[in-house]
Amino acid sequence: MNPYYPIALRVDDRLVLVVGGGNVALRKVEALLACGARVRVVAPEACLELEALAAEGRIELRARAYAPEDLDGVFLAIAATDSPAVNTAVSEDARARKILVNSVDRPDECDFITPASVRRGDLLISIFTGGKSPGLSRRVRERIEEVIGPEYAEFVALLGALRPGVMAAYATEQERSRVWRRLLDSDVLALLRAGRAAEAWERAREIAYACDPGGN
User: What is the C-alpha to C-alpha distance for residues 16 and 200, in angstroms, rounded to an integer?
Assistant: First the structure.
């Protein structure tokens, strides 16, 4: 049995603690900032990139060893140091406060695991092996990246822009589903891939608002 429940978690304007100052911590911080989180970093020594983020006011940097009070007000915690003892302490302290925690490379000390992912705008594809093989997750991610290109970001944006109009124009779920199928099976994505965005949007509007509610 895989005990992990797949979920997309909102962290915008939430405080997240990252303990660690190296490259692993940096990757976690950058991903969190991209999602709008407020980030507190605790590390006796931090890499230059983290120091720069702190100097810009984008993160809070506490340049010292981890202490339990670093968890005050925190929504999530991530232990990303090269010290198993420190990572375990963060995990135990967070769990005692009922704060969800991730401990890098220690699935047994995690309440959640951040999967390998491919992001194209609002399209997010995650690959997860339950912590058993991060290498396989990366390999699958690389294959997906070869197939799902940047044009999908605009395709998702286009579909999202059309959604309110489609919902208003068609009364039943069956009619709306027919519209979405025609859009997904159309040449709109190919036009976006070819850099012909204006044509793609025009074609999408034609399909969205020319569908016969009767199915013809």
Answer: 40
pTM for the model: 0.82
Ranges of each domain in the chain: 1-114, 115-148, 151-210
Query: Which CATH code fits 1-114?
Result: 3.40.50.720
Quickly name the fold that domain 115-148 has.
Answer: Double Stranded RNA Binding Domain (3.30.160)
Structure tokens at 211: 């569908």
Domains 1-114 and 115-148 share a fold: no
Query: Sign of the C-alpha dihedral, residues 186, 188, 191, 196?
Result: positive
First vs last Cα of the chain: how many Å apart?
Answer: 46
The dihedral built from the CA positions of residue 72, 74, 80 and 85, taken in this order, carries a sign that is positive
Read off the amino acid at residue 181. Answer: R
pLDDT digits (tens, 9 = 90+) for 154-208: 999 999 999 999 999 999 999 999 999 999 999 999 999 999 999 999 999 999 9
Beta-carbon contacts of residue 36 (< 8 Å; ≥ 6 apart): 11, 12, 13
Q: Return averaged pLDDT per consecutive 10 residues of the chain, 216 residues in all.
A: 86 98 97 97 98 98 98 98 97 98 92 91 91 89 96 97 95 94 97 97 93 50
Read off φ and ψ for residue 77, nearest 5 degrees. -135, 140
Of 202, 200, 199, residue with least CA distance to 189? 200
